[in-house]
Amino acid sequence: MTDQAQPLSRGIDEACNMLGVGRSLLFELIERGEIRTFRLGRRRLIPESELKRLIADRLESSPGDHDE
User: Fold this and answer.
1) Could you tell me where the beta strands, DSSP code E, fall in the chain?
2) pTM for the whole thing?
3) Neighbours of 37 (CB within 10 A)
4) What order do you get walking across the sheet with 43-47 strand by strand?
5) Which of the residues 24, 48, 57, 66 has an alpha carbon 20 to 30 A from that of 1?
6) Is the pLDDT of residue 44 over 80?
7) Contact between 54 and 16 (Cβ < 8 Å)
């Protein structure tokens, strides 16, 4: 059995797919400081922990808005 390493960060397009949002909204969230990013070479990457934190924060701030 081989262990495959899971990515620690995601590119912009992949993060959009994971969150189910468009690039414009993702860049708005980045500009507002709601998601932290970093650059590696020419790529802008988002730590997966940031994506999970964003979802957790949104669920906490609006508990009646999510599906059960």
Assistant:
1) 9-11, 38-40, 43-47
2) 0.81
3) 17
4) 9-11, 43-47, 38-40
5) 48
6) yes
7) no
pLDDT digits (tens, 9 = 90+) for 5-43: 889 999 999 999 999 999 999 999 999 999 999 999 999
Distance CA 68, CA 59 (A): 11
Assess contact for 8 and 15: CB atoms under 8 A.
no
Evaluated on CA atoms 39, 25, 59, 68, the torsion sign reads negative
Cα–Cα distances (Å) from 2 to 5, 6, 8, 9, in that order, read 10, 12, 18, 21
Distance CA(23)–CA(4), nearest Å, equals 28
CA distance 40 to 24: 21
Which residue's structure tokens are 């906490």?
A: 60
Residue entry with tokens 């468009």: 22
